[in-house]
Fold:
Amino acid sequence: MTVSVGVIGLGRMAQALIFPLIERGKLQSADVIGVVGSQASVARLTPELPQGFVVVTASDSRAIDAWNAPVQLLAIKPQQLDAVAECVGPPQPGQSALLISVLAGVTLERLQSQFPGRVCVRAVPNTPCLVGEGLCGLSWGEGITAQQRQWVMEAFDPVSEVLELPESKLDAFLALTSSGPAYVALVAEAMADGAVAAGLPREQAHRLAHRTLAGTAALLDQQQLHPAQLKDMVASPGGTTMAALRKLENAGVRTALIEAVIAATEHGRALR
Structure:
């Protein structure tokens, strides 16, 4: 079997990255092989995969094809890294394999140590990639070629805006963009709960909260507004919005969000 891309770990993020490349014709299904941990995962995933896409367990003899592919997407859980690395040999002689890791907190230095002979890339995509609205930070390992760099950029482009960052900035990037959807989801839930308490049906309250957040984000982005500008556009003197903003400020919401991003950054650094 000739494989162009080996996908080690085929969860939702890996699927969100690989499937658009197949749909756009950048990859052929038959040129990709996925490796998962159990036969149950193979059985569950197979009906959902594009025709010709092969998925096998790590114990299957065909799993070596994934590790011999010129491009390897590592999308396992970070706690599985040591066990996986122990089972992997160096690339075939003369081969320059590209390893793209989406594992949070796993440094390029560690990747290059545990997967010798490979050119490594750290990618930090966030969950909105699942709907093609993501952000992805990329840091390059030693020895990457211009062609490999271009391939990686184009691979993430269908599902995210791509930013090249020094690895030292990835922890802050992750704390804002990868953890950020959880902060926003918490805000959305709280806003909807407030609307339910004020009398709106729950389903309608959730829908309105989601659309309000999405519309606000689009307005900030498309008109390049500073958040304070938009706040001032909405908050009339002595009005209902100012009454609400006073409550938020008194509750320390602004400080809590600042500290949340800092805490996530520091925790990411502590994982090394």
Summary: The first strand starts at residue 5 and ends at 8. The two ends are 37 Å apart (CA to CA).
